[in-house]
Structure formats: C-alpha cells, structure tokens
Amino acid sequence: MSQIVRVTEMHVRPADPAEIDHLAGIWYDGWQDAHAGILPPELARRRTLDSFRDRLRAALDDLRVVGLPGGAVGFCFVREDELCQLYVSATARGSVAAATLIADAEARMREAGVETAWLACAVGNERAARFYEKHGWRRVGTVMHQPDDSGGIEFEVWRYEKRLR
Ligand SMILES: CC(C)(COP(=O)(O)OP(=O)(O)OC[C@H]1O[C@@H](n2cnc3c(N)ncnc32)[C@H](O)[C@@H]1OP(=O)(O)O)[C@@H](O)C(=O)NCCC(=O)NCCS
C-alpha cells in the first residue's frame, strides 16, 4: 500500500557544481511562477535558463541547497547583509524546505557579524511576502531596485529587514 510521507526535516548543504543545471531549472520555474506576471516583460526576456546558470555559477561559493545530491528542492544565497535569492521547487512549497534555507541563511549572516539583514521582494509577490513575515522579517518600505544582470531595468520592490543580533 502506498503511503504519503510528510517531510519534517531537511538539511542545508553547500551546492555541488554538478547540480547547477538542476538548480537553474528550479530558479527558472520559480521565476515564471512568482515574477513573470508582475515584472517588466523586457526583464522576463533576459531571464533565460542560461542566465540563471551563469548567475548560479558566479554565486557557487555562497550557494546553499536543501535536498539530497541529485534531488535538491531549493536553494538560497546571501551576499554580505543581503539575502539575494531563495527559491524552492513547486512540489516543495508548503514544506520545511524554504524555512530551513532561510534559517541557514540567517545563521550564516549572523555568524559573519551582520546585525540587520535585508532583502528585496517584488511588489505583488504575496506568497513570498507572507513567508518572510511569518519568519520575522518586517516590511520597511517600497523602493526602486535594479537586480543583477537586469540590463539597467529597475522596478519597485518591498524592502524587508530582520535584526539578527
Ligand atoms: C517564496 C518561497 C521560497 C516560500 O516558500 P513556501 O514553502 O512557499 O512558503 P510557505 O508555504 O511556508 O509560506 C507561504 C505562505 O503564503 C501563503 N500564500 C500562498 N499563496 C498566497 C497568496 N497568493 N497571497 C498571500 N499568501 C499566500 C501560504 O498559505 C503560506 O502562509 P501560511 O503558512 O500562513 O498558510 C516559495 O514560495 C518560492 O520558491 N516561490 C517562488 C520563488 C519566489 O518567489 N522566491 C522569493 C523571491 S523574493
């Protein structure tokens, strides 16, 4: 008889270069789900699978993933005091995956001496906003933001902050 197993624990680990393609797929799909409908179409045209691969390669040293090698279900990376990217696959949403990743990211920033961390969340990404607020992040304003490799395209984001110390 088949049985549904609810995953209640996951471990975060450094990414392996061999899983960049897989993680780029998670990023591409998550971007389509969360951002394609609310961000400028010209940005969507730049957000190809290749562009995500390149950015993941560039972030490899800071890249953390959940899920077994070959079966990662999400990733996150931070840059100094910024939580830059947090994506989990559609099948892992609502599980402990994203919560485990953000706890790891916060711990790493805290250990690095960051007092207040920040992140940019596209205006209208309600699921992500709810997730961050649930985990103690506070919306401090709406600001213009130009993400990496955006070709100069700017858009409004909600700035979230969390005191870590
Ligand atoms: C953002 C993300 C990492 C959060 O992980 P998650 O596993 O989906 O988060 P959770 O399910 O724990 O929390 C999401 C909350 O939003 C709620 N929610 C879902 N859809 C919603 C909507 N349209 N509006 C408001 N809240 C919504 C959920 O019910 C849940 O709240 P609850 O626990 O009080 O019921 C994940 O959704 C994701 O990867 N999304 C695509 C990429 C993305 O947007 N990344 C963030 C970029 S800033």
What's the count of strands? 7
Helix content: 25-40%
- The succession of helices and strands, N to C, reads EHHHEEEHEHEE
Low-confidence stretches: none
Q: How do the strands line up in the largest sheet?
A: 1-2-3-4
Largest beta-sheet characterization: 4 strands, antiparallel
**How does the overall form come out from the CA principal axes?**
globular
Beta-strand percent range: 25-35%
Question: How are the SSEs placed, and which strands pair?
Answer:
Blueprint: E1 12-14, H1 20-34, H2 41-46, H3 49-58, E2 63-66, E3 74-79, E4 82-88, H4 97-111, E5 116-122, H5 126-134, E6 138-145, E7 155-163
Antiparallel strand pairs: 1-2, 2-3, 3-4, 5-7, 6-7
Bound molecules: coenzyme A.
Coenzyme A binds next to helix 1, strand 4 and helix 5.
How would you sum up this structure, described in words?
The protein is an alpha+beta fold and 165 residues long. It contains 5 helices and 7 strands. The mean pLDDT is 94. Bound molecules: coenzyme A (COA). Coenzyme A (COA) binds next to helix 1, strand 4 and helix 5.
Brief overview, please?
This protein is of the alpha+beta class and 165 residues long. It has helices at 20-34, 41-46, 49-58, 97-111, 126-134, and strands at residues 12-14, 63-66, 74-79, 82-88, 116-122, 138-145, 155-163.
List its traits.
single chain; 165 residues; alpha+beta; four-stranded antiparallel beta sheet; three-stranded antiparallel beta sheet; 5 helices; 7 strands; 33% helix; binds coenzyme A
